[in-house]
Amino acid sequence: MAGRKQFDIATALDAAMLQFWRAGYADTSVDDLSRATGLNRSSLYSSFGDKDTLFTRCLERYSTRYGDKYDAALSCAADRPLAAVRAFFDVTLDRIADPRLPDGCLVAQTVMATPVLSASVAERAREAIGFQHTRLRAALKAGRLNDEAAESFATHLAAVNQSLAVMSRAGTGTERLRAVVDVTLGALARTLDAGD
């Protein structure tokens, strides 16, 4: 039928997302996206718009996919805050260990590339990284940390989580990344035990 798309949009978005994740926004050309998705330039533009629009859709797809996993991990925070935060980090460590996925984090890579991004893409990246802090803070408050401790630990945990992604991109192995998480969880455990 004329005008009917002959490809799966979700599959094409996943392929574009992986291309951006591997190479970064600035180093991904429309030709790279065409090769990754199997779509010609005209199909890419007609289906997804310009590079910024496609990238924003990929970033939202990534943020939703892993955000949902983070939310599920943190869902037990009211009863078991330490277990919830451990599960949160496990989402990141499992993603890093998956050989089918690029190293690092698409959101962290995007935030670091802010100087070369359009204003709209840079803002969307800042929002995505901010969601991580927000979800952690809410979970820690549910776990009965006071406002100040929840804010401090949310900032720290989000920073550690992004550091894991950066370290993995630099080749740090899973065992060392888990050691970083263990130190962080130890500090959180002491705070929870103290009833702060």
UniProtKB/TrEMBL annotation:
Looking up PANTHER family in the UniProt record yields: HTH-TYPE TRANSCRIPTIONAL REGULATOR YJDC (PTHR47506:SF1), TRANSCRIPTIONAL REGULATORY PROTEIN (PTHR47506)
Instruction: Say if the entry is tagged with keyword Lyase.
Output: no
Q: What is this protein called?
A: TetR/AcrR family transcriptional regulator
Q: Which organism is it from?
A: Streptomyces lienomycini
Task: Give the keywords, sorted.
Answer: DNA-binding, Transcription, Transcription regulation
Which part of the chain engages DNA, per the record?
29-48
* HTH tetR-type domain span: 6-66
Instruction: Name the SUPFAM superfamilies for this protein.
Output: Homeodomain-like, Tetracyclin repressor-like, C-terminal domain
